[in-house]
Amino acid sequence: MSNHYSSKKRILVTEKKNSVNSSRRSAVKTATKKVLVAVESGDKVAAANAARAAESKIMKSAGKVMPKKRAARKISRLTKKVAKMA
Q1: Can you give the pLDDT at residue 86?
Q2: What are the distances in angstroms from CA 54 to CA 16, 32, 38, 63, 66?
Q3: What pLDDT is stored for residue 2 in this prediction?
Q4: Which of 11, 31, 68, 77 could disulfide-link 57, Cβ–Cβ 3.0 to 4.6 Å?
Q5: Could you state, in chain order, the average pLDDT of each consecutive group of 10 residues for the chain (86 residues)?
Q6: Residue 78 contacts residue 55 (beta carbons within 8 Å)
């Protein structure tokens, strides 16, 4: 453990960011699973609503938790799966 103020502060900030990022990652995974479950069950309305919520979560994490292109790819793939249902 360091004794410098700035080092102590960096440790605290890093811990806080890690917890926020891990919760964001988890929220993205959960939202994605909800879309996939709705698609599997064949419920178009639930799938569309879940996709909208998942897109919001993914875009909020884009550039922070995951690269922007990965986020775009995830959204595109989910949207295609929901669109195939119609």
Answers
A1: 63
A2: 24, 6, 12, 16, 14
A3: 78
A4: 31
A5: 89 96 96 97 95 96 95 97 88
A6: yes
Distance CA 72, CA 37 (A): 21
Output the six-digit token pair for 81: 């799966």
Query: Rg of the chain over CA atoms, in angstroms?
Result: 17
Task: Judge whether 58 and 71 are in contact, CB under 8 Å.
Answer: yes
CA separation for the pair 4, 80 (Å, rounded) = 52
Q: Give the integer Cα–Cα distance in Å for 4 and 22.
A: 27
According to the CATH classification, is domain 11-85 in 1.20.58.110?
yes
Q: How far is residue 25's CA from residue 37's CA, in Å, rounded to a whole number?
A: 18
Residues 6+ apart with CB under 8 A from 57: 24, 27, 28, 31
CA distances from 15 to 5, 32, 57, 62 (A): 16, 26, 22, 20
